[in-house]
Amino acid sequence: MGQWLYRNIVEPGKLPLLLALASFVLTFVITRVVVRLIRAGKGPFGNVKAGGLHIHHVVPGVVLTVIGGFGAVGSGRYGFGAALSAVLFGIGVGLVLDEFALILHLDDVYWTEAGRRSVEVVVVTAALVGLVLGGFSPFGVNDLSDQELQDRGTVILTVAANFLLALLALSKGKALTAVFGVIVPFLALIGAIRLARPGSPWAKRFYRRRPRARARSSLRAYRHDRRWAGPSRRFQDWIGGKPDDELARSLPQRR
What we know:
mainly alpha, two-stranded antiparallel sheet
């Protein structure tokens, strides 16, 4: 294990990335545990306030991200400074992305359906960083041989082709497939050749006068969502907590 860690992480200079990923995931997990305890009224924790103003944890997250980011730029890839900057950056990103939905909506939607976006972004971010840490380079350039790497034209064509496939998958409403397709070219190819989701830019442009294609697209999306929506929601609830019931949120609070 020690030899593998040195050859694959330390020697290539990936230790700061590993520390950033570990601190990012750990911060998110601890943060979610704390806020769920606050929500349940358990434990010694409580909301942070200053002069009656609720200070969301995205605020210290931004501060730590800035400190860690500039520290990483100034310290290089090796040494204690790089490791400390990576940890601070990972903690800051964990705090920021845990409230990604709040930033997106400019509203406190933490315990609403919209708040699920934070969990989705955190999972995708952790997965992508994990893939990079495991040796995958963007656009699959790592799969090229030494001879191919010397041929800049081949590299450029490979990058451009996979980028176009990822954009095509994104235009078909397959955001996650497009994101992961940047790292794994096969996924981008699958997302590019399959039917577009209803309401996507591709469907609006090319399925407008093709009723059979629209029907097939809607049927496939319905079957996909019916199969995966339940497990996906349970997984998100397990990680981030179940959102408040919309009806309960709309009722006036008793005093």
